[in-house]
From TrEMBL:
Matching HAMAP family: DnaJ
Entries under SMART domains matching the protein: DnaJ (SM00271)
Record keywords, A-Z: Chaperone, Cytoplasm, DNA replication, Metal-binding, Repeat, Stress response, Zinc, Zinc-finger
Protein name: Chaperone protein DnaJ
Record localization: Cytoplasm
Domain notes: The J domain is necessary and sufficient to stimulate DnaK ATPase activity. Zinc center 1 plays an important role in the autonomous, DnaK-independent chaperone activity of DnaJ. Zinc center 2 is essential for interaction with DnaK and for DnaJ activity.
Length: 375
């Protein structure tokens, strides 16, 4: 029995789109095959992706809520194709044509017109800064391309497909049977042309008569600034080539961002940490800190307490779709309190303790510093 997509992402049915996105990012990081090598992690990762594909799109989510998995079984975002009535016409013909030849008739017929190529998916890893600033990325994608020898016809150059002599181009063969109850006509796919209505006598050597062949293509795609884990990019017409002159499918690139040793991301904000000495915390200072834009000078005010958060405006992640608007960098300040000090440092600190009227006692300088940071 298929698992509930909401259960897979660990969210409730009334959860909004942003919470679904956050849940997906968290689980995608945890179960990505490059990170999690445990048995079953890859299958779990695929489940998570499928659940997010369905629930992240309002239309497919609505169909899933109403009909369950059956409502989205044809693929995410792929509703009934009302513009292509070929299959419906075949069913209509098969059902009603039985009454023309007698009491009953069955038929199966393949479409012989153009067929759109399949969509493809590619998972692409990005470094942290690549996701922040975007840019061009070269990828290699294996897909089916129209054969350049026969231009998709499947026949050897200088020849062409001929009308199938068995079915005379209809793609079907009929067989009538008389019974005491009347005449029955059985309609089936032509075995000679497999329902195409045409046969290729001399196949193209480049593609073996398929009209398409597997090729690996280099593409340059543009990564917009501000993408994150799970962002999906659509590259039009870079999927598999269609059959019989049909249009190619699309390529969907799913992005996964590698973790950075220094920075973490929280929405469009960037989080980082620095450590300063206790003297810098007491007296204040100016120091260089790293940002994704490069080193920036940060002012630490005197009396800064442990775990104070300092903000650098406009040094975060550009907003996806609006790169002019950026988040901030939030820097958590840690204070390094020494466990050992020199005799000279102790003497100076004890003098300072006397001036402040603090008792040092057995605890020594540690007691003094502890008292300072509490007060």
């Amino acid at each position: 029995m298929a698992r509930d997509y909401y259960e897979i992402l660990g969210v409730s049915r009334d959860t909004d789109k942003e919470e679904i996105k956050r849940a997906y990012r968290r689980l995608a990081r945890k179960y990505h095959p490059d990170v999690n090598k445990e048995p079953g992690a890859e299958e779990r990762f695929k489940e998570i992706n499928r659940a997010y594909e369905v629930l992240s799109e309002p239309e497919t989510r609505a169909r899933y809520d109403r009909f369950g998995e059956a409502g989205v079984a044809s693929g995410v975002g792929a509703g009934p194709d009302l513009g292509d009535m070929g299959n419906f016409a075949d069913i209509f013909e098969s059902f009603f044509s039985g009454f023309a030849g007698g009491m009953g008739q069955t038929a199966t017929r393949k479409r012989s017109g153009p067929v759109r190529g399949d969509d493809l998916r590619l998972d692409l890893k990005l470094e942290f800064r690549e996701a922040v600033f975007g840019g061009e990325k070269e990828i290699r994608i294996p897909h089916l391309e129209t054969c350049n020898v026969c231009n998709g016809a499947g026949a050897k150059p200088g020849t062409r497909a001929k009308t199938c002599p068995t079915c005379t181009g209809s793609g079907q063969v009929r067989r009538a049977t008389r019974t005491p109850f009347g005449s029955f006509t059985q309609v089936s796919v032509c075995p000679s042309c497999n329902g195409e209505g045409q046969v290729i006598e001399e196949k193209c050597e480049g593609c073996g008569g398929n009209g398409r062949k597997q090729e690996t293509k280099k593409l340059k795609i543009t990564i917009p600034p501000g993408v994150d884990n799970g962002t999906r990019l659509r590259v039009s017409k870079e999927g598999d080539a269609g059959l019989r002159g049909g249009p190619p499918g699309d390529l969907y690139v799913y992005l996964f961002v590698e973790e950075d040793a220094e920075f973490q991301r929280d929405g469009i904000n960037i989080l980082s940490e620095i450590k300063i000495s206790y003297l810098q915390a007491i007296l204040g200072c100016r120091l260089e800190v790293n940002t994704v834009d490069g080193p920036v000078e940060l002012t630490i005010p005197s009396g800064t307490q442990p775990n104070t958060v300092q903000m650098l405006e406009n040094h975060g992640v550009p907003k996806l779709g609006n790169p002019v608007s950026r988040g901030d960098q939030l820097i958590t300040v840690g204070i390094d309190i020494p466990t050992r000090i020199t005799a000279e440092e102790r003497e100076l600190l004890e003098k300072l303790a006397k001036i402040k009227g603090d008792r040092t006692g057995k605890g020594g300088i540690e007691g003094f510093l502890g008292g300072f940071f509490k007060g």
